[in-house]
Specification:
Length: about 240
């Protein structure tokens, strides 16, 4: 055995069936210049044990699909992940996932395989996407040895970009829900938050088309330009 073998992260132990499912997952597809309306998007929300990017765990995954400029209610995803070592923290007061709910959850390997099968090669949308992207990517690497390469767009970036006239100081999902008078029956539940994010995204996609941003690639490029401009230091 190499003296340095202990430095290498061990690969997750998957069954033959799980390994076969992993190998059959389609690769990520970059955002293209086709119609924004025709693109299939997976709108994601995660509930986690906390906000520490390196220590906390994904507890629940909720997702819905936008396709043909509408939410496709026949394509929805929801799983609570079983986490034997998860300790209840302050976040349980927000999402309500206590020890009994987590103990009754799905095997993380099966849940994550199911989710990536649901995603396919579609891009993802989330509100404050960098957090969800990092947490999902870490969960996939830890449980499956899978590298997440799917493009993400952040609805928290799209909203101020496409609605510059909105005088919103806070950047939370609730602020934009209130701004557009969206009727949301439940919050801080992965599936409900994914649905609320999808409803907001549809409004923003309509605004994008009005501004001649007609493709996913054009929208991604405009977001990148906007972020460089707004984050540039002022002298």
């Amino acid at each position: 055995m190499s003296w340095f073998s202990w430095l290498r992260p061990s690969r997750p132990a998957l069954s033959a069936t799980q390994q076969a499912r992993l190998e059959q997952l389609p690769g990520a597809r970059p955002l293209g210049d086709g119609s924004l309306r025709a693109q299939r998007w997976v709108v994601l929300d995660l509930e986690t044990s906390g906000l520490n990017l390196n220590r906390d765990q994904v507890l629940s995954i909720g997702a819905v699909v936008i396709e043909d400029a509408a939410i496709d209610f026949s394509q929805q995803f929801e799983r609570t992940l079983q986490r034997a070592d998860a300790k209840p923290g302050p976040s349980v007061l927000i999402h309500g996932l206590g020890p009994s709910a987590i103990a009754a959850g799905c095997d993380p390997v099966e849940a994550l395989l199911d989710f990536m099968t649901f995603v396919g090669d579609s891009p993802l949308l989330a509100f404050h996407a960098p957090f969800d992207q990092h947490m999902l990517g870490r969960a996939l690497k830890d449980s499956l040895g899978y590298h997440l390469a799917h493009p993400f767009l952040d609805v928290a970036d799209l909203a101020p970009l496409l609605c510059p006239q909105a005088s919103i100081r806070e950047t939370g999902l609730d602020n934009w829900i209130d701004h557009f008078n969206l009727q949301v029956g439940e919050r801080h539940h992965a599936s409900a938050d994914a649905l609320a994010t999808a409803e907001l995204a549809l409004i923003l996609f309509s605004r994008a088309r009005q501004q001649h941003l007609d493709s996913p690639l054009a929208l991604q490029q405009r977001v990148s330009q906007w972020k460089r401009r707004t984050q540039a230091p002022s002298f």
